[in-house]
């Protein structure tokens, strides 16, 4: 049986990996495009391993980017991010992936979508998912993105060339405003849990923050420990569901189960004071401002999505939020050091409070590298496209 092929580049960006494709190499019909991508990634897979495709069986390894040169004034590159479900025939196009956004810049240079001179290059990229402009600064040498460097991303072995990302006016990309309910804290009545104080924030991505202690957790549990605790995972999903109802994403809880976890995620947060650091040696406990355990696509993340880190940094600077209450040090005008299961993630957020809270920009640093380029094969029987 013949197989379909897609020209693609397999790239790492930050703590994620994904399949990168030119928009011109994909079918224009959305259903045909998605069928081809799902088959190439090995989804859906009831065994949740994606062994028959390019996916890696977890959310951070099951992603795609569709990239194109932009014709819009002041924009160099535009891209669409897709979170490919591991066990369902679904690609979620809500939100953005901050980790892979760094790789978009490198892909654009390597694939000739831009033609910069050697040296530090600044690109303006448009996320078509969110409408947010992202500035990317990276090194270029001999028409290739520089790979070697001394910058370390906790959760990634080795070091690489720094790629600086600046997300401009990122608040409200999903719901239209930074605080979807207008409140820094919302008490949600959750069946089986009771009243839970949360912060629902839309900055970089849409997140529901919950103090780990409210659920009798330390905030230092390993991701595998949380995932193995089925009653706790059910409680976290119930809180996410109630948050979705509160912001109007669904009229009732029975309809929220279909709400994309990539559109609304939940994160546990904990103070860094008075507790022992996590077992990872990369977590420099005395440097951290806040500890975060993100639940990504219904699974505890082994590091932290950049979008969640961005949202956390903003929440740290907005008075009255669950995150802000847990930070004991002055955060004005400085980088927020976010501890996660794999180490630290520093994020800069420029936040002001003039006639309401406003986010001017959020900056994060990543590394990225091209891992493979060529053709990806997809079984014709699973694609169902005419040859």
UniProtKB/TrEMBL annotation:
Keywords: Isomerase. One of its GO terms (molecular function) is isomerase activity. Pfam families: PrpF (PF04303). Gene3D superfamilies: Diaminopimelate Epimerase, Chain A, domain 1. InterPro entries: PrpF-like. The keyword Lipid biosynthesis does not apply. Belongs to the PrpF family. This is PrpF family protein. The lineage of its organism: Bacteria, Pseudomonadati, Pseudomonadota, Alphaproteobacteria, Rhodospirillales.
